Every structure is written in C-alpha cells, then in structure tokens.
Amino acid sequence: MLGPDLDSAHSRNTFEDLSGVPVSASSNPYDALIHASANEPAHLQARYNTHRLTRTDQQRTQLLDPAFPGVIVDPILQRLEDPSLDVGYVDPRHCLVFWARPPSGLRELISNIQQKLRSVAPKLWLMPVDNLHMTTLEVTHSLSNEEINRLADTLSPKIPEITEYTFDHRARLIKPLLSYDGAAIAVSFLPAAGEGLHGNRTLADDGYTYHHLRRDLYEICKSSGVAVASRYTVPSAHLTIGRFVTQEDFSKAAQDGTSIPDREKMKKWIDVIEDLNLWLQEEYWPNRGKAIGPGGEWIVGMEKGLDCRRGTLWYGGGETVRLGKGF
C-alpha cells in the first residue's frame, strides 16, 4: 500500500462513464453500451464521442477555475525520473494487461504532437514513443510481483488466443483528438462507423468495433478463471502521451514568495491543445474528398498483435509475456 505522500496521480483523478448509458447488471461491463447502441456502430461512436466531449468540457472548466489548486503531480513518476528525491525507490505496483501497440504512422504523429506540447510546457514528462500503448484490457493492477505471476500462470492457456485475437477481429479507430485533465494528456480515438473507408475495408467490417473487441477479451479472460479487476471500463480509446511531474510550467510566484497556479499559463496550455485539435480534425479526420492523414486511422492489430504485459508497467515499462501477430 502506498503512503499518503505517494498516492499515485490516478488515485486523485476520477474516471466516470459520461456517455449517458446506465450501469448494466450484465456480468460483462462492456455489454451495456453495445445494447444501448442497438449494436449500431454509429450510435456506439456517438456514445464514445459524448463521453470524450463531456469530460473535456468538465476538465476545461476545472482547470480554468480561479480556485483550481494546480496540476496533479505524479509523485511516483517524479521519483523514478529523479532518483535523488528518494534514493532506491522502486515502483511497487505490478500489473497484468493486454496492450494495443500503435502503428508507425501514429507513433510519428504522436511524436510531432509531443514536441508541440513541450513548446508550452517544457517540464512535461513525455511517454517514450517506443512505450506508447493503449490498454485494451487491464486484467488487474497494483499488486505484488508474486500475485501477478500467479494470475499470469492461471491465464496462460488463454494468452495466445487473446494476443492473436486482433488478427481476425479488426476493429478500426478514427477521429483522433487530444484529451486532457489535471494529471495527464492523451490522444483519444472513436470507433469507426463507415467513414473514410478505403482499400478492401467494408461498412460491414466496421460493425465489429473496438468496444466489441474489449467485450470479447473480457469474456475470454474471465473464462480462464481469472477475475478481471480493471480500474475503469469507461468508453474511451486513448494513449497517454504526457504526464505532469512538476507544477513549474503552470505556476507563478506570489507576493510572499510561494508558488501559486497561473491561470494565464493554463489558458495558453489549453489554447495550444485546442489549436492542435482543430489541426487534427482538418488533416487527420475522414473529411469529404480527402484521404485520412497517416496516423488518423488505426486498425487495432496493424503491425503488431496485442501485447500481453506484466510488471511495473504504469509508464510503459514491464515485460512482454507474449506478443501477438500483426497484419
């Protein structure tokens, strides 16, 4: 258990489903949204979009509120980045997950975005490009190494099936935007619903969405006898690309010499994000008569299958148990 001074940023940052879909009594938490959307990709995409836009509106209001106490610094990441703060500190939180790894075009796009963000927040911690990932299924988190190893052993007969699942179940994600809160910033996507089809991809193919993929992986995992203990199952498809390890970029000196939040710096940060989102919509969304820019579309499983990962992987580390075949 982490001490009070080492509570992770996540523990102080709430995640709730803002799609408008009530909690389901189903044994699979992903069923509710599929049923509420009548299994229609366009309706399901709209629910993901409602969640994304509602949360962004909430976060913008909070971050610009005069009473905002400052960004949420991740004390664990802070110590890992600067060992002098706590010599010998080791992240105790071992996890077991299945990650989707972004293809090369998306990695390049994210790297470009990260540098633009650094121009206004030079102290921002950036997720290394090779560590970028989207958590398709979090089996469990914040356990000991021994506990994770036992769960991985129980799950092992199903790991090949899960890591290879995206080879024949190809869910497409589109419409990237930057999503943010007081602790981090991410690139988020929406499940496709027939927009910008090209090559051999058909409208029927988009009937199998990213949410269906998450539902199926949950069922396969559960069938192994391992109980899924995800932190959240909100309708979001995102890759974290940056976190706060200091408040320096968004603070100023008060008259008494202490540091206080600087609303103008925060407004500039949000303005840069919103400008980048306009650029993403123009260049990387399926606009009429214009091809989607490289990185603006992601068929999960491109280049690499799912990555079963265990260990202290909160910031992109850990070790691969098995990597599935890509296409």
DSSP E strands, number: 11
Shape: globular
Please list the strands of the largest sheet in the order they lie side by side: 2-6-5-4-9
Q: What series of H and E elements makes up the topology?
A: HHHEHEEHHHEEHEEEHEEE
End-to-end separation? 41 Å
Structural class of the helices, strands and pairings? alpha+beta
* Computed Rg: 20 Å
Number of helices: 9
State the major sheet: 5 strands, antiparallel
Helical percentage:
25-40%
Mean pLDDT: 93
Residue windows where pLDDT falls under 50 for at least 5 positions: 1-5
| Strand residues, percent | 15-25%
Characterization of the model:
The chain is α+β, with helices and mostly antiparallel strands and 327 residues long. It has nine helices and eleven strands. Strands 2-6-5-4-9 form a five-stranded antiparallel sheet, with helices on both faces. A four-stranded antiparallel sheet has the order 3-1-10-11. A two-stranded antiparallel ribbon has the order 7-8. The protein is globular. The N and C termini lie far apart (41 Å).
